[in-house]
Amino acid sequence: MDRSSLFQLIQEQVSKLDPENTGFIAVENFTSLVEHHELQLDPSKLDMLLALVQSNEEGQVCYQELIELMSSKRSSSFRRAIANGRRTLQREILLDETGLGLYKRFVRYVAYEILPCETDRRWYFHQNRLCPPPVFIAIVTIVQIIVFMCYGIMLNKWVLQTYQPDFMKSPLVYHPGHRAQVWRFFSYMFMHVGLEQLGFNALLQLMIGVPLEMVHGILRISLLYMAGVLAGSLTVSITDMRAPVVGGSGGVYALCSAHLANVVMNWAGMRCPYKLLRMILALVCMSSEVGRAVWLRFSPPLPSSGPQPSFMAHLSGAVVGISMGLLILRSYEESLQKQCSWWVIVFSFITFLLFAIFWNIFAYDLLGVQIPPPP
Question: Keywords assigned by UniProt (predicted)?
Answer without folding.
Answer: Hydrolase, Membrane, Protease, Serine protease, Transmembrane, Transmembrane helix
